Amino acid sequence: MKISSETTKHIAELARLRIPEEKLDETSKDLEAIITYFEVLNTADTEGIEELSHVVDIKNVLREDEIRPSYDREQILQNAPKHDGEMFIVPKIIE
Amino acid sequence: MTAVELGRMIREGETTSVEATERLLKSIRSDEHNAYISVCENALDCAEQTDKLIRSGQLKGPLAGVPVSVKDNICTKGIRTTCASRMLENFTPVYSATAVERLENAGAVIVGKLNMDEFAMGSTNETSYFGPVTNPWDTKRVPGGSSGGSAAAVSAGSAVCALGSDTGGSIRQPSAFCGVTGIKPTYGAVSRYGLVAFASSLDQIGAIAHDAKDCAAILDIIGGWDERDPTTIKMGGTEYLTNLSADIKGMKIGMLEECFGAGLDPEVEQAAIAAAQTLKSLGAEIEYFNMPVIKYATPAYYLIACAEASSNLSRFDGVKYGYRSDDTSDLHSLYSNSRSEGFGDEVKRRILLGTFVLSAGYYDAYYRKAMRVRALIKQAYDRAFEKYDIVLYPTTPGTAGIIGGSDDPLKVYQADINTSSVNLAGLPALSMPCGFSAEGLPIGVQLIGRVLGEQSILNAAHAYQCATDFHKEAPV
Fold this sequence. Notes:
The structure holds two protein chains of two kinds.
Chain A: H1 5-14, H2 24-38, H3 73-77
Chain B: H1 3-11, H2 17-29, E1 36-39, H3 43-55, E2 67-71, H4 98-105, E3 109-114, H5 148-156, E4 162-166, H6 172-178, E5 181-184, E6 204-209, H7 212-222, E7 252-256, H8 266-281, E8 285-289, H9 297-312, H10 331-342, H11 345-358, H12 364-387, E9 390-394, H13 409-414, H14 420-425, E10 429-436, E11 442-449, H15 454-467
Parallel strand pairs in B: 2-3, 2-4, 7-8, 7-9
Antiparallel strand pairs in B: 1-3, 4-6, 5-6, 5-10, 9-11, 10-11
Helix pairs in contact in B: 2-3, 5-6, 7-15, 9-11, 9-12
């Protein structure tokens, strides 16, 4: 299947990735080659076959909703790019 | 020196954890393969504490006091964990993975974090933000990936044994390229809590070491049900080490025909066939069988893996942890710039592929189709295991390639042909050294077991390693 620059831009936008203009063609070609490779799957007969996502038959693993200690706020904030000692600081979202 | 042997020496007072750790730290500091990203500053303190507990009889396990190295996508509390990415260059987890905790409780000393392909995406360890790892057998060549640092370190002696992770072959393939033994357990047999997720339905933590015995010892420690990972199987502890046996009389081995022959390096094929013959001479029954659907494994694997990766890596947004761009005028650019600058090219490529196959209009044709093909592959293996105890074929189609020699991503993906089907089916698999090419490069053969059939593949490997010496060879 052909992957146009428009498609690549659209996918990049969905993934919140920026592809520079000069790399758009090369990226589209790469994606196209690989997606075409994926299309060999269309020759597989999967009539009546259900999708398999978990190879061991485990479903809906539940646990009690208990209150437990979490992590130390100071420790967590140590990994934060920008914080004020209490909260993560981000650009203004709502005007 | 294997981990189990070192553990015995420490237990019996022939050496101490401090001595062993000191020696290893020296090796690590003089490592020429770029196998490590971080060294644990407090390893000697841990070793000292561990020696006390061993002397007082509180720690008696087979790996008490043994230094263990950990792939850098597995969280270690207080120790930088980067996933070999700029995105997590300065990230220090506030918790340790279950596998790490269990090792520490068993007395292992975590000594360093190992280099890898960025976010486990790659098969050559060339996508690491911290530079490529070289193969100790030929430093112009790749060690394989994504657990390249783990395999290279064990091979070169700068690790006694290591934890790796395997999503499409990332433990087995580098083990084959570096002449060491690596095992990926049954999906759900080892907790993924604390393993930075790449593809959640495929990832597993496993072991890379000098032999099957060490692999057994490590799996016994790290495996078993974990409340914190709901995808783990409700199973207790395993006893692979105590139940390890070299008696494989009557074991039925199926050699998958599609993974021999065309497209395979003839030296690799010969070595794998010879390994099967050796197992036969030890009492196993061998025969070829067919599984035509295996040709769909690699495309199905990459499609599913990229889809899951695109979802898993959406958490890296520059907000709460990880890399944040300097150029963030609004929320959108905070996300896009941080991600675009923080991730390398291969990671971005896979995120784009995954986003595409999950996007509206394509989800059915691509992702859901691949999930059905996955079911076909699992069913085919299930049928094989009605006849055979283990399945055998070469781990890789060739030996280690030259660093910088793979500029076509698709070609690199296609070389996962011999490992990816195993992750799709969730089966346990082990790669062990079975020979060398004329150029002196290691060759690995792969043993695949049925669900929770780790004992069989460990036994077959152990039997093979009692009768051969390939796993004892070391690069000069």
